[in-house]
Amino acid sequence: MKKFGHKSILIFILTFLAGLFGYLTRMIYARNLSIEQYGLFYAVFSLVFFFGPFRDLGLSEATLYHLNKKDNEKKTKSILIYELIPQLIFGLIFFIIFFSLRNYIATSYFKDPLALQIMNFLLPLFIIETIALTLSSFLNSKQQFVLFNFQTFLSGFLRFSLAFLGFRIFKDISNVPAITYFISQVILIIFLASYFIYKYNYVLKQKFHYEEKLFKSMFSYALPVMFSTASTVILTYSDTILLTFFKGANSVAQYNVAYPSLNIILIFASAFIGMIFPIISKLYHNRNHNKITELINTLYNNFLIFTLPLGLIFFSYPKLIVNLLFGEQYLPAAIALQIFALSFIFIVLRDINFGVIAGIGKVRQRSKIMYIGAFSNIILDLILIPFFDIAGAAIATSMGFLLMAILTARLIKKEYEINIQKSRIIKIILSNLFFFISIIMLKKLLVFNWIIEAILVLLISAIIYLISLFIFKVLTIEYLKDLWKKYF
């Protein structure tokens, strides 16, 4: 259990910086490209990587699951080959199909010749990305959480740096986003491969033996994961694809300001959420179910302390956030950001539950839940987007998150005894109510420069929130010490 908190501060910093560079990159794109160019890049990106799960085949997660088994340590090379080769083959198949149809797609679907140029960079990336996925699976299986998060940071930093340079070097800036994505991924692969060869050279020395039983076991685990991941991609990219079809690149641009802005607050949770799956998997293989139950209950009874106030901040200042990050031309995205801010707690709860469910090997059940959420999202998209544009897409996605959070919680409850401290949850909600009321009142009382006003309002409201938590005894010195001993 101590591994859950060990080095978590460094991981949090790396995750925060990775997210920060991700937003800085989007800011550079948004401020240098036209709205149509910005929207078109993400429209093309969504269409190409919509097929990512059918290239991955669920083997990335299957590799992580099987490498966690002690008796598979001497079969590491075989497991990695079982992941990499099929992914390369299917990546090449999709590349050939898309490459042969790229002219038709650019003119008939995107209705913009620039889409053809963007695809010329993203399609090769679709193939070579499989190498990074395989190496990442291995590092995650070794619980190299710091390095695993460092690669995300490195990727974000490279894209930011290359974008910064690209807009100053290239005359035709419309291709800069696609070029930066491609080059940054190549550099990342070189880094991961170099580290793998240096640190884990013994894996390369292992002999590869084809074992039909192991191969079938991996695919038996992987295929449900593939369909589960496919539903995740449907949930993520279907909004953009349908917005492209119904409304065009302008709406795609606005939506790809609102939805990614939500990830700013997910940064604060993702460092811990990312560790749940490998830790639960390890505990599950060791049959330490009591520790799993303890960890689940700790997460369930505490995650609202952080998620609710962050969601309320984004709900209270959507225009400020959009304007500060992307500029006035993207202010129509504020309404969608508010909708996403309200659904933030469901996203975090869903991700926590997915980590637990994957760790205990319930991938088939998770796949079913993902498809229920994904297809409900598509149905709502088809109904709401034509009438409400990006707000309709945001509502549809939020409802999908809520549905999946409920269904995954019910699934976990069948396996482990979840002890929700209702009085504690009520006190957390009341503390957040005081926090939100103080924001509303202080916004009316304090009239300064909009940035200074926001800082003062949030600082005072945060103090009120912390005081409320201690008054209601949601947090006590003894409770915090106990958490520190258990997890840090």
The whole-number mean of residue pLDDT values reads 87
* Distance N to C terminus: 9 Å
> What class do helices, strands and sheet pairing give?
mainly alpha
Name the helix and strand elements from N-terminus to C-terminus, one letter apiece.
HHHHHHHHHHHHHHHHHHHH
Low-confidence runs (pLDDT<50, min 5 residues)? Answer: 1-5
Biggest beta sheet summary: none
Gyration radius from CA atoms, angstroms: 23 Å
Task: Give structural notes.
The protein is an all-alpha fold and 488 residues long. The chain has one domain (2-420). Helices cover 85% and strands 0% of the residues. The protein has 20 helices and no strands. It has helices spanning 8-32, 35-49, 52-56, 59-67, 76-110, 114-141, 145-169, 176-199, 201-205, 212-246, 249-285, 289-300, 303-316, 318-326, 334-342, 344-359, 363-415, 422-445, 450-471, 477-487. Helix 1 (8-32) packs antiparallel against helix 11 (249-285) and helix 11 runs parallel beside helix 16 (344-359). It is globular, with a radius of gyration of 23 Å.
List its salient traits.
488 residues; mainly alpha; 20 helices; 0% strand; disordered N terminus
Short description:
The chain has one domain. Helices cover 85% and strands 0% of the residues. It is globular, with a radius of gyration of 23 Å.
Topology diagram in text:
Blueprint: H1 8-32, H2 35-49, H3 52-56, H4 59-67, H5 76-110, H6 114-141, H7 145-169, H8 176-199, H9 201-205, H10 212-246, H11 249-285, H12 289-300, H13 303-316, H14 318-326, H15 334-342, H16 344-359, H17 363-415, H18 422-445, H19 450-471, H20 477-487
Helix pairs in contact: 1-7, 1-11, 2-6, 2-10, 2-11, 4-5, 4-6, 4-10, 5-6, 5-10, 6-8, 7-8, 10-11, 10-17, 11-13, 11-15, 11-16, 11-17, 13-15, 13-16, 13-18, 14-15, 15-17, 16-17, 18-19
